[in-house]
Amino acid sequence: MTAPAQPSRNDGRDRFAVAGDPASNTCDEIILVCDVDGVIQCASGDCREVLGRTPEELRRCSWPDLLGSEESGNAAAELRRLRSGSFSTTLLSRVPVAGGDDREVAWLCCLPDTGQNLMLIVGRDVSRQFERARRQREWVHRYELAGQLHGLIVYEWETEADEVVWGGGFESVLGYRRDELPTGLAGWLELIHPEDRHDAERAAEEVLADQSAAHLTYRVRRADGTWVWIRDDASFVADADGRLVRMIGTLREVPVDQEFDELSRLIVTSTPTGILAVDAAGRILFSNPHLQETFGYTGQELEGQMIEVLLPERLRERHFELRQVWQANPTPRPMGSGLTLFGRRKDGSEFPVDIALNPTRTRQGPVVLCTVADRTERLAAENAIRERDHRLRDILDNTSAVMYLKDLDGRYLLANRQWEVLFRIDRQKMIGQTDFELFPEHMARAFRENDELVARSGEVHEFEESAPHADGPHTYLSLKFPLRRSNGEIYGIGGISTDISERIEAERENEWLKHRLELILNSIGDGLYGVDCDGTITFANFAAARMLGWNAEELCGQDHHAVSHDPLNDRVRADSECRVCKVSREGVETDVEEEQFRRKDGSLFPVEYTSTPVFDEGSIVGSVVTFRDISERIRREQAEEELRTAQAVQQLLYPRTSPTLNGVDIAGATHPAAMACGDYFDFIRTGSDEMVLALGDVSGHGLGPALQMVEARAYLRATINAESDERQVLTQLNRLLVEDTPVESFLTLVLARIDARSRSFCYAGAGHNAYLMRSNGQIEDLPSTGIVLGLISDFDMTVSERFSVGSGDLLLLLSDGLQETMSPQFELFGMDRALDLIREHRHRPSAEIIERLYRSSRDFACEDSPRDDITVVIARFL
Questions:
Q1: What are the residue boundaries of the structural domains of the chain, listed by start?
Q2: Does the domain spanning 648-877 belong to CATH 2.30.30.40?
Q3: 20 to 30 A from 664, CA-CA: which of 280, 290, 513, 724?
Q4: Any stretches that span the bilayer, and where are they (predicted)?
Q5: Using alpha carbons only, what angle is made at residue 828 by residues 827 and 830, rounded to the nearest 5 degrees?
Q6: pLDDT at 617 over 70
């Protein structure tokens, strides 16, 4: 212990500074009335609390004597100053109190009236404030010493002023003098390693946002230019209003082993597996973020809780008992091996989990580390695999083919139900047996030779094999293939065998029908010719000869490559490149949707064909090619594809939804007469309160008008904006269309620019008029302001005056396909009928009016689809 410091003049000034603290207004206070010699005439206030005496005991006492021998001299000097003419003086002194601790009292002495020879002395007890200031100075001194002693850098950052005050061991840790350290946050960030700076800034912003403590690790540049890992631990101080005004923290160098600890902590906190640390009593010591996210708890909520809080309530008691048993002999192992375990989230929901236990020991005692993984997705995957296996088993067991798997020694691993049915052997009993134990030796030897060939070559092979049946041997076409492990190693043979006995018999029976079939083949329109295994044409029907430009007799004996196939790279195709020859080799029918055949004169034409293998006594002897000239079909499909493409492009170009414009209900729709449409409408926004409505009609319908419509739309979209002039836009568009449009084609177009703010619009019509229907149903015709586009280059266009609109008014843009709709009695739908219907439903939404208008035209025509493109755009002012 060290002796208390003796008061000095400096100490007195410090103490009086405390007396001036506004917080001292709450201190005890007394008032003394004395004569000019300091003798107390009367006293008031809490004298016993401040001086240990009552007012009566103080009467006639000398004020300087109350202060004790050390302070009485100072008090007498202050009295002399008052008597010499000073109006007031102050003094801070220590006053001894009988039966108690000395008090620190701040005195204010004044001589209000020299004629009365009386002094007024006010005393205020500031002992508690002085003690608080003294302890604070001692604490700061100790903190500074502790920082230097333990290698800590102490800092305080005033957030509003952005001023940093440094203390502690900054020279030993970083090598900087105090005057070399930055005084603001920006300067400190410059000392942080560039790779760590962004994370440090972001962490500081997060701490400021949620008013939490900061714990950061980053690299800082020393005075010698080297980098050192620093641990930054800080907390914030808020004022009475809750504003963060100050950060107080420490910086310390992270040793190499602590860097490893930081890395370990980073691994644990960032791993995608839940991790728990539990003490011997079953209390949770630690949980990583992934586990907290999985169970819906925060780390603070879990810390100190019993581990059973993470289990369903029905399992907690049993888990507690099992935990006690395991802790008697703890060993690393998975928990609940073979069972489905469940966890319980904070919200009460349950989910399957995998848990592994690993007991360990720390300096604080035994600890169990648990890894917890959510099995929900894995169980779903396992169930999917089981379901897939079940489906595969169903497929295997319900196919007419015989399917089986064998190992390399020929032992059966699996066989489907058809194998069991055909050979009348329980497939469970035959697992592990070989063909020599199940079939006659000569058949088993043939099966084994084929299996060994597949195993040696590692390739798929096709065999004709004979197997015993109750009605005699059957011939099977067996497709055999190697079974491989994931590393490519062959571990067995798989086979799919199809009974082809009936097919072979049918081919024999069909042989005698060959002549009759030739007569039939020559009477059909598709071309047919036969090819042997060498690629030589054996027969051809009349249709084949006609399409290829040969006589039927001339074709027989010719190489079918040279006769029918187009050359491949200026040479005759090899057999291996020909799909017809492949059929002859492999005996599998092939359908070819499109290929080029060559006529005798060398010209090519497209065909679709089917090449079917021909078998004789079970052997492939060639194939039959059935082909058809598809030139016309291709032309038709190309035309249809062009129309479908144009339609798809158009549908993408039309507005997909009605636009939003303040105070205006806008809708539009088009109904094409063909796949591609020559009508066009668009909504082009030119400002938050302004929009241009466009409706055009290219003469005719189909692909050509559709392409012209796309060109017009692209130009309008590119040129119309808030500053554009419709007259210039239409003039330039006309010039482009004159160059690109066929002579017989033209485009009518109307553009209407709506200003929602001024509740008005203007329009320009190139051979296309519009209508304004007032709220009372009255119609104002808006005639065309120029001629149609695309006919002549000499073009004159004007823009209408601005029309004011009110609530309930409708702006109507319609293509001529609507009014030209014709009934079965050859009566036109007409514009009057259309306007009457709009007038009747003018109070409905624009989209509904358009739909009713279109349905009415279809009912009038008694047809579902229009014969001409119909397009309508309506803007209803609200």
A1: 9-132, 150-262, 271-379, 399-499, 504-629, 648-877
A2: no
A3: 724
A4: none
A5: 145
A6: yes
Q: Can you tell me the distance from the alpha carbon of 530 to that of 580, in angstroms, rounded to the nearest whole number?
A: 10
Closest alpha carbon to 126 in 101, 103, 154: 103
Which residue is it, tokens 């755009």?
873
DSSP category for residue 62: B
pLDDT tens by residue, 833-857: 999 999 999 999 999 999 999 999 9
pLDDT value of position 486: 86
Can you tell me the distance from the alpha carbon of 95 to that of 92, in angstroms, rounded to the nearest whole number? 10
Helical spans, DSSP H, in 231-371 = 256-270, 289-295, 299-302, 313-328
| Residue 411 burial class via C-beta count within 10 angstroms: exposed 0-12, middle 13-18, buried 19 and up | middle
E strand or H helix at 730, and its extent? Answer: helix 726-740
What average pLDDT does this structure show over 800-806?
A: 95
For domain 271-379, the CATH architecture is 2-Layer Sandwich (3.30)
**CA dist., res. 324 & res. 328, Å (int):** 7
d(CA 550, CA 544): 8
Contact (Cβ atoms closer than 8 angstroms) between residue 191 and residue 184: no
pLDDT given for residue 363 in this prediction: 59
End-to-end CA distance of the chain: 89
* Nearest partner of 666 among 648, 702, 692, judged by Cα: 692
Burial of 867 (0-12, 13-18, 19+ CB in 10 A): middle
Average pLDDT, the chain: 83
- Give me the mean pLDDT over the 572-594 stretch: 79
What's the pLDDT tens digit per position in 810-830? 999 999 889 989 999 999 999
Q: Which amino acid is at 343?
A: G
Distances from the Cα of 405 to the Cα of 302, 428, 485, 664, 854, angstroms:
54, 13, 14, 73, 66
The pLDDT confidence band at residue 223, using thresholds 50, 70 and 90, is very high
DSSP 304: T
- The answer to whether the 504-629 and 648-877 domains have the same CATH topology is no
Compute the distance between CA of residue 512 and CA of residue 761 in angstroms, rounded to an integer: 87
Query: Is the backbone of residue 336 left (phi > 0), alpha (psi -120 to 50) or beta?
Result: left
Mean pLDDT across the stretch 45-67? 87
How many whole angstroms separate alpha carbon 206 and alpha carbon 197?
14
% of the chain with per-residue pLDDT over 90:
25
Average pLDDT over residues 293-313: 91
Q: Which residue has the tokens 């207004």?
A: 25
Provide the CATH topology of domain 9-132.
Beta-Lactamase (3.30.450)
The angle, 0 to 180 degrees and rounded to 10, between the axes of the packed helices 703-719 and 726-740 is 150
Q: How many helices (H) and strands (E) does the chain have?
A: 29, 37
CATH superfamily, with its number, for domain 504-629: PAS domain (3.30.450.20)
Q: What Cα–Cα distance (Å) separates residue 216 from each residue in 235, 260, 733?
A: 12, 15, 65
Architecture of the domain made up of 399-499? 2-Layer Sandwich (3.30)
Q: How many alpha carbons fall within 13 Å on the CB side of residue 27?
A: 25
CATH assignment of 150-262, among 3.30.450.20, 3.40.1010.10, 3.30.530.20, 1.10.10.10? 3.30.450.20
Tell me what pLDDT residue 804 has. Answer: 96
